[in-house]
């Protein structure tokens, strides 16, 4: 039985994702930050992971439909 599935993408937006089947959490990693989405249905996760464009699928199936939290952010440091 698969409990967690990790994926990497050839995408300009989404670098990778991880889905926890038990907790129904989807963690999505971008170059600038990572987000965790809660109570994501398996059906929406499968649509996201199998899409031709994960960026478009994230907007269509996940982003406005699930509660989320930013879990880390890369901040640019400028030289003074």
Structure description:
The protein has 2 helices and 5 strands, in the order ββββααβ. A hairpin with a 5-residue loop joins strand 1 (4-8) and strand 2 (14-20). It has 80 residues and is of the alpha+beta class. The protein has a 5-stranded antiparallel sheet with strand order 1-2-3-4-5, with helices on one face. Helix 1 (42-50) packs antiparallel against helix 2 (54-62). The chain has helices at residues 42-50, 54-62, and strands at residues 4-8, 14-20, 25-30, 33-37, 68-73. 22% of the residues lie in helices and 36% in strands. The mean pLDDT is 92.
The neighbouring-strand order within the major sheet is 1-2-3-4-5
How are helices and strands ordered from N to C? Answer: EEEEHHE
Q: Assign the structural class, choosing from mainly alpha, mainly beta, alpha/beta, alpha+beta, or little secondary structure.
A: alpha+beta
Average pLDDT, all residues: 92
Largest sheet: 5 strands, antiparallel
Task: Enumerate how many helices there are, as a single number.
Answer: 2
Quantity of strands, as a count: 5
User: Which geometry do the CA atoms define?
Assistant: globular
Question: Residue ranges: pLDDT <50 for 5 or more in a row?
Answer: none
Rg over CA atoms: 13 Å
Percent in helix: 10-25%
Distance N to C terminus:
53 Å
